[in-house]
Specification:
mainly alpha; 19 helices; globular
Length: about 450
């Protein structure tokens, strides 16, 4: 199935006579292949970890680990939008700028995110040690209550440093060298899996599970700093000057991306946090299991589509709208077909597979699987369209969709989650999302979108 998903990019690379277009498709294909390997190892790592942990962890402890592991998605906005802004800045500098300008953009952005990451880690660590959050997460068992604070401290350190690590990955993706970044991530995931399977790791603590399954992969980008320096893209001696020169250029697009990330987090990225604080950490287990199951298709599709951000940005900088239009249509069609095919299988076999996977500790109703299939289809298509919007620089219409999405989406989620459960929450939010996105891009900003396609 994954090879089928890569076919449009492979055929476009082979058949396209435009040299620049072939180069973009080739870079996207190689980057996607490396990312598929990395994400495949990541899923295998998580699958092994949850199967082993479900044997010796009590339900609250298992839910705590799964809940904290999902916090990274909910807190992604804490990079203040600079990570996304860097992608377009680096792609534009590569396409039209000099080597000196490219080095300034790369160095300034990475240093800014490194300083921000250190401050974020300290702030989250202080919050975790100063405030007792046991009652907030409805934790009742002693094992989970004792593990809560050290688990949050480990998460704080890993998450803070991951802001700089993600910046390195974004730089390489924008340079259309994502194969290097994802290759390094695959090596780190493989090493973490080997450690988890070793005799030295029989019953790892929640903190070690978090470090192996989230921390080490999140920090993989840091090992590539010497690679960038060898390429002449990271002149440390002029780092302070690069920082001062680049921050003003990052500020405006970063501010817009920050608002978009904040809205995405509140409206659609904090489901795990919302469920754990509303219904308790035990209730997160079924949702997390279904989420991981559907990530078998969502993650590969994201892997196939994300490298197109840099390709869209490069083509837009050079005025090649035909490439943008053809690539968007292909990615939407492949995404829809694969989600429907894989999701149907997951709905048929998902409950059995999850029960087997977790030694019967987690049971999943069919209603949750069907609701997540609908959500996954719309979410995958939305992400595919979002890569296009970000790549071509259509930001303000996204902000126009943000406010109604926040108000309506959160209201529907809180109402349905408390009264009708997780499945109803997913269906309600998905319908709200379709109505708002259809109105914003299909009616109000239709001309703006078409200008970048025709």
């Amino acid at each position: 199935m994954l090879y089928l998903g890569a076919c449009p990019y492979l055929l476009a690379w082979i058949l396209n006579t435009d040299t620049r277009s072939r180069a973009r498709y080739r870079a996207a294909l190689f980057s996607s292949a490396a990312n598929l390997v990395a994400k495949g190892l990541a899923f295998l790592l998580f699958a092994v970890a949850i199967r082993r942990a479900s044997v010796y962890l009590d339900p609250d402890s298992l839910g705590l680990w799964l809940a904290v592991s999902g916090f990274a998605t909910a807190l992604g906005f804490l990079d203040l939008g600079m990570g996304n802004a860097m992608t377009n800045r680096v792609a534009a500098a590569r396409a039209t700028g000099s080597a000196e300008e490219l080095a300034r953009v790369v160095t300034g952005g990475i240093v800014a995110l490194l300083l921000l990451g250190i401050a974020t880690a300290l702030a989250l660590g202080l919050l975790a040690t100063a405030v007792d959050l046991s009652a907030r997460f409805h934790i009742h068992q002693a094992q989970a209550s004792a593990a809560l604070r050290p688990t949050l401290v480990v998460f704080a350190g890993c998450f803070g440093l991951s802001l700089a690590a993600n910046a390195v990955v974004r730089v390489l993706v924008a340079l259309q060298e994502g194969v290097v970044a994802y290759g390094a991530l695959a090596v780190v995931n493989g090493a973490a899996l080997a450690w988890l399977l070793s005799p030295l790791c029989q019953q790892p603590s929640i903190q070690l599970l978090l470090l192996l399954c989230y921390g080490l992969p999140a920090l993989a980008g840091l090992v590539l700093l010497p690679w960038l320096r060898q390429r002449g893209l990271l002149p440390w001696r002029t780092a302070w000057g690069c920082l001062r020169a680049e921050v003003p250029s990052l500020a405006r697009p970063a501010g817009l991306y920050f608002l978009l990330q904040l809205g995405t987090m509140v409206a659609g990225g904090a489901d795990g946090l919302l469920i754990s604080t509303t219904l308790g950490v035990r209730e997160i287990a079924a949702f997390a299991a279904v989420q991981k199951l559907f990530q078998l298709i969502q993650v590969p599709l994201g892997t196939l589509n994300t490298p197109l951000w840099a390709a869209y940005a490069d083509a837009t900088a050079l005025g090649e709208r035909h490439f943008v239009r053809i690539t968007l249509v292909r990615s939407l069609a492949v995404t829809a077909a694969l989600v429907i095919a894989a999701g149907s299988v997951f709905c048929f076999l998902g409950a059995w597979a999850i029960g087997l996977w977790t030694h019967g500790q987690v049971t999943v109703p069919l209603s949750l699987l069907l609701a997540y299939l609908l959500f996954a289809l719309v979410d995958a298509l939305g992400n595919c369209f979002g890569v296009f919007l970000n790549g071509v620089g259509i930001l303000r219409p996204q902000l126009a969709a943000l406010i109604p999405m926040l108000v309506a989406g959160i209201s529907v989620k809180l109402w349905l989650l408390a009264d009708h459960g997780v499945a109803a929450m997913l269906i309600g939010y998905t319908l709200v999302y379709l109505v708002i996105v259809g109105a914003v891009y299909g009616i109000v900003n239709r001309r703006v979108v078409l200008e970048h396609l025709t």
